[in-house]
Amino acid sequence: MLVSAKEMLTKAKAGKYAVGQFNINNLEWTKSILLTAEELKSPVILGVSEGAGKYMCGYKTVVGMVNGMLEELGITVPVALHLDHGSYEGAKACIEAGFSSIMFDGSHYPIEENVAKTKELVAVCNEKGMSIEAEVGSIGGEEDGVVGAGECADPEECKMIADLGVTMLAAGIGNIHGKYPENWAGLSFETLDAVQQLTGDMPLVLHGGTGIPEDMIKKAISLGVSKINVNTECQLSFADATRKYIEAGKDLEGKGFDPRKLLAPGAEAIKATVKEKMELFGSVGKA
Ligand code: 13P
């Protein structure tokens, strides 16, 4: 059964580790992530962007697929199904469809409007026992058409949003989605420290987990980050393994064209990436 992300993140913050949010795109992604979490006895959050939700034929299809897999694969670790960078309408649709967690990304609204909309959604999520993530300071880069400049959050605004009763808070600290450019300045630990000072026990979320050096990940966790989002890195691993399979001509040997064979190396590559991240984040054995 799907669970809210609240308990797993409260434990992570107290235990100084982070739970990974891995974005899903299809059946192979979902299965690889769930099997790895189970094997490593790690809690996990499945992230669904609005674009990926549409691609998978809508939120109800996603809920059906994930719930089916939890049962049929015998998954026992805590799993949250979470809307990633949701609009106000998207958040409502996911609440209806049976997600266990949502992110409402109101970072592009003026702070007053971000506060008003977040407050309304907090009330609905509380009533349903769902977790809710809010964002202050936009995350840079582009993800499914959502473009942000990568600004650092204002710690006072973070406190204002945290005080609305959200479960976890994404604060921009110079992180961006996708690959980091050569001239990236790195994470602003000064901002992160200031945000944590003001928000206390609130689990903080680090978006743009792909390509952040290990030492920065560890330092971010030590400063209160308890959820780290990874998307692009699984896509790159999948694409790389699939390209190697095709370039080696394996799809032309015997029944190598069968999608169950053709997609297998990519699915294994996702498992390896998820395992590497769970080990780095410290969530192994914490289920
Ligand atoms: P990456 O694609 O950079 O890993 O970012 C994922 C993310 O933050 C999802 O919200």
Quick tags:
287 residues; alpha/beta; eight-stranded parallel barrel; two-stranded antiparallel ribbon; 10 strands; globular; binds 1,3-dihydroxyacetonephosphate
Uncertain spans, ≥5 residues at pLDDT below 50?
Answer: none
Q: Bound compounds, please?
A: 1,3-dihydroxyacetonephosphate
What proportion strand? 15-25%
User: What is the 3D shape?
Assistant: globular
Structural class designation: alpha/beta
Oligomerization state: single chain
Based on CA atoms alone, the radius of gyration comes out at: 18 Å
What is the percent of helical residues?
A: 40-55%
- Could you give the distance between the termini? 14 Å
Strand line-up in the sheet with most strands: 1-2-3-4-5-8-9-10
Largest sheet: 8 strands, parallel, barrel
Q: What's the overall average pLDDT, rounded? A: 95
How many DSSP E strands? 10
Count every helix, treating DSSP H or I runs of 4 or more residues as helices: 12
- List the secondary-structure elements in sequence, H or E: HEHEHHEHEHEEEHEHEHEHHH
Provide a short characterization of the protein structure:
48% of the residues lie in helices and 17% in strands. The protein contains 12 helices and 10 strands. The longest helix is centred in the middle third of the chain and has 18 residues, at 111-128.
